[in-house]
């Protein structure tokens, strides 16, 4: 299976940084998407192996997207500075792996690969 990751991040420089980092590590990147709507459109075209989600986007919380990913059985990882992202993005984010922000490269890769395997 191709290692595909959907990046959902509304800060342009962070999104580009994540994209380059993941591509260097052998991942195929969908996006990055800066809004929930953009990400949902990308999901209509192709399902990723995993998604990397910022909690708050330009068009609000990532909750609706997380629900759509769950419905499609796509695991997701949260990239957030919030210690408890579920307080912002709802119960759907409780228990999701979190890599923090800024994200350390080795941790990010390890958590994404674990999410794909589980």
From TrEMBL:
Stored SUPFAM superfamilies: CheY-like (SSF52172)
Residue ranges constituting the Response regulatory domain according to the UniProt record: 4-116
List 4-aspartylphosphate occurrences by residue: 54
Which Pfam families does UniProt cross-reference here? Response_reg
Instruction: Give the Gene3D superfamilies listed for this entry.
Output: 3.40.50.2300
Q: Which residues cross the membrane?
A: none
Q: Which UniProt keywords apply?
A: Phosphoprotein, Transcription, Transcription regulation
List, in alphabetical order, the GO biological process terms annotated in this UniProt record. phosphorelay signal transduction system
- SMART domains, per the entry: REC
The molecule here is called Response regulator receiver protein
Name the species this protein comes from: Sinorhizobium glycinis
